[in-house]
Amino acid sequence: MKKKIALIAGGDSGEYSISIRSAAMVFAEIDSEKYEVFVVEIKGKDWFYKHPDLGIIQIDKNDFSLRLGTEKIVFDGIFNMIHGSPGENGKLQGYFDMLGLPYTSSNAITSALTFNKAYCNHIVRSTGVAVSKSIHLFKQHPCDLNVLLQKISLPIFVKPNQGGSSVGMSKVSKKEDLQAALEKAFAEDSEILIEEYIKGRELTCGAFEYRGEILRFPVTEIISKKEFFDYEAKYTENMASEVTPAAISEDTKQKVHETISKLYRVLNCKGVVRFDFILNEENLWFLEVNTIPGMSSASIVPQQIKAMGYSLRAFYSMILEETIR
Ligand SMILES: Nc1ncnc2c1ncn2[C@@H]1O[C@H](COP(=O)(O)OP(=O)(O)O)[C@@H](O)[C@H]1O
Ligand SMILES: [Mg+2]
């Protein structure tokens, strides 16, 4: 019997369309001999499957089942491809835990913590990994710009505290640009994170625990044609080059891999996650961890999986094997 999998996509964030693209890639590559896959779109309270003949069918939220005519589909597992809320921040994880439905990503607390960049930074810093100096601001507690600039030095990054794909993010080098950057970030989230800019090379690397062992992927260097790896550089062809494996020394690669193994364990990650870093002479700086990294054809993780010598098909089966036991 084929296992029935709900491949969930969509979500309520600015990364909606990226999620749809990631899910399309997973759907195209997943082993259809082993798995029967249903793409379930989740958008606000609208949770649905598009049947080729029957049209749009809503999911029964009592047990996340699907009724196709007289047949009731009960899923064996969830392939989570929702970037941002509610798939990457623990909300759906809590719901699936209550139903006892296994899913491919980290649990509710890990997802909520890692999606909150400011709180995640505190934990990561406490393990001895270098993290940029930062300030966490809340919309309901306005802050004087002069006071702010006494605590942190320009240039800085202003970002929504809970976001992705560089949406709402700015690099600020002049005090005059700070107000607009704060407003842009606050338009995306009620909390923002201001971080000191770290000059260096940008590295990113995925990891996946398989049969008790953490597989570390080849390291990728991101060379953006924009000032940083912004939304345009991420999703427009030729706006960034992604070099896998990165041209780095064996020592640096070891350092990235050791850091990843430590953080994967400390944060209690599950499934495929991707860590972003900046490397300079001083240190390897942690930027963030993505617990639902992009899987579209333009994304980094599929490139790293292929560079390791795996087919996506084999790898997605490994992910589902870990999920459904
Ligand atoms: N403190 C920083 N110093 C230098 N570059 C940064 C810093 N923070 C973010 N960036 C740049 O912005 C990009 C997006 O930031 P990141 O924190 O990874 O957010 P997102 O979740 O949107 O990917 C990074 O890939 C990097 O290019
Ligand atoms: Mg990032």
Describe the structure.
The chain is α+β, with helices and mostly antiparallel strands and 325 residues long. It folds into three domains: 3-104, Rossmann fold; 112-130 and 200-291, D-amino Acid Aminotransferase, Chain A, domain 1; 133-196, Dna Ligase, domain 1, CATH 3.30.1490. The chain has helices at 16-29, 91-99, 108-115, 117-126, 145-151, 178-186, 231-235, 250-266, 300-307, 312-323, and strands spanning 3-10, 35-43, 46-51, 55-58, 66-68, 71-73, 77-80, 130-131, 134-138, 156-160, 170-172, 191-196, 201-210, 213-216, 220-224, 240-243, 272-279, 284-290. The strands form four sheets. Strands 8, 13, 14, 15, 16, 17 and 18 form a seven-stranded mixed beta sheet that branches. The chain has a five-stranded mixed beta sheet with strand order 4-3-2-1-7, covered by helices on one side. Strands 9-12-10-11 form a four-stranded antiparallel beta sheet, covered by helices on one side. It is globular and about 65 Å long. Bound molecules: adenosine-5'-diphosphate (ADP) and magnesium ion. Adenosine-5'-diphosphate (ADP) binds next to strand 10, strand 17 and strand 18.
